[in-house]
Amino acid sequence: MRTEINLNKKWAFTKQSRAVPETMPTDWYWVDLPHTWNGIDGQDGNNDYYRGTCYYAKQLLKSELPESERYYLEIRGANSSADVYVNGRCLAHHDGGYSTWRVDITDALEKENLLVVAVDNSPNSTVYPQNADFTFYGGLYRDVKLLCVPASHFDLDRRGGPGIRVTPTVSGENASVAVETFVTNPAEGMVRRYTVLDAEGRVVKTLETPEDLAVLEIPGVHLWNGRIDPYLYTAKAELISESGVVDEVSARFGCRTFSIDPERGFILNGREYPLRGVSRHQDRLGIGNALLPEHHLEDIDLICEVGATAVRLAHYQHDQYFYDLCDERGLIVWAEIPYISQHMPSGRENTISQMREMVEQNYNHASIVVWGLSNEITMLGETDPDMLENHRILNSLVHELDRTRLTTMACLSTCPTDCEYVTIPDTIAYNHYFGWYGGDVSKYAPWFDAFHAKFPDTPIGCSEYGCEALNWHSSEPDTGDYTEEYQAHFHEEAIKQLFPRKYLWCTFVWNMFDFGADTRGEGGENGQNHKGLVTIDRKYKKDSFYAYKAWLSPEPFVHICGKRYVDRVEAVTKVTVYSNLDEVELFANGVSLGKKRSGEHFFYFDVPNEGETVLLARAGECHDKSVIRKVEVFNEAYRLREKNAVLNWFDIVEVDGFCSLNTKMGIVARNPEGMALLESEIFSRAGINTAMFEMFEAFSVLRLIGLLEATAKTFDREQLLALNERLNKIKKL
Fold this sequence. Notes:
By secondary structure, this protein is α+β, with helices and mostly antiparallel strands. The chain has 11 helices and 44 strands.
């Protein structure tokens, strides 16, 4: 029988070495896995985090290993390329930082062994991702194990897969479960025993056969029914010889049917089941992607608390434990590979290998319903023949590997809806940031309605939407101010437009959590994307978190917004309350301000602001408290000040009726002289195609330049002031 040994403890690590050591190093420092070398520098901005080759070394004594015929090293995540050495001999190379892979080290083992893994996250042109809005943390950041197996065993060489594939087919009240196994070096006379067990571990059906495929029937099947009832069976396969069981593998699975209808949206087990979800990046503050099980568990708890029915696991393969949690909690999953932003002609084989690994390793998960081919890959255009061919290959490959699920794709907002690229997958979704990057938040409903009217037979979803918020505050929030109040307003409006449209097969907030993006320098805290409903440390749920909870969660609650916005200058201030109950009453210092009802779950109160006011909201048996305080001068601690900014918006001279660095790009561009200035002074420097202008029209000129500053020092203070003088001469039209 196989034995599994966890190898996470006590590895020697270095960034300094330039070669594989011949003996165990004495001058490296000790680390335990999971580990990344970018937990700090990958989140502090300036796009200067270390990207290169680092080495991990560990001693293995053969005498301390279980007696076995074959030994496999299993690496569950090494970002982004890695080589395995045993006693100086290179045994394997792997490209792709997010999947499991294994190496047979048996023949290289001696009495005493030096195991070295060289991990490299250097920029290159062959391994995805290379250009994306998140940090590519290097390291052995998931578990490393040693699998000790007999000579005849369930396959460990099949692209990191479990050696067992389970395909349930539901028909009426019953299900047929096809269980396929892959066996390495089977001895003559060996048979396979297949068993299906229910959630309590009781045997439902068993079958013994010499074949690699068996079909077992489940009468009166208990369906896996999403968040409502995520019931899981287990399929177990045993390899049996005359002497008994030689090896064993198992996989949990769920029996369900699903479809995606262009009018009715997502349908689970014959019933409409709206996918109203969030996207997730896996990293954490200070530890990057080197997560422990308790981190994954906290994430799934928060996603379930907000009431999501689905999660987009972006933009790469996530930890197997997290897929397991999604199975258990009933979250529907969009799974994807990191084929993102810009197509690399020399990266085709890597997209294929990463897709093969993702499907093979995750085939048995009941939660997964779609495989994502790519994300915003058309940043350099949608007509590249090589890019189109790459997508056709991936789409065909997925259907060859998995005939039970659909393909999808997340399209860049500016991608034409009638181009060939959009027609390749089974379903389609768009990333739109109306009200943040371009246009107004009111554009969501008109855009999707227009798409649906033009392409009524094409299932359409919203794969990303959101805006950034930090601990900045305003009673008059506006696009681009990074306040918690604007983010709350944005999501209120987006929810009201997106959720009632049942033809939208999916909606995914970008993002559930703030995440590391070392190229970013905006919002006053560099190195992060702050579009999360929850902060990167998982310590604070922003008000927008509760906007979704009000629409999606069945758990009664009430929440007063603006708890971090205490000091307010206005005599009467607006206070927003969220609840999933129909009626809310608000009290100010014990005095009722009245009851309000709302079918949209958002309740707005005008509150007299005198001295210090204790607010109490009641909804049914639920209550929540907060405090506001009257001040004469606006508290500057609430106002955005960009970290390391050359200029802040309040340093800029404004001329009434004319443009400035504080003017939104769309307003400047209305004047032909303004557009010409933007093209010559900004677009040309940054390599921005004017065809992508819609993405930036809601930015102020200063904000866009600030974003460009994260990747290229294009303007100093004097140049900005000179540009502002020129803008002051351009009339607003």
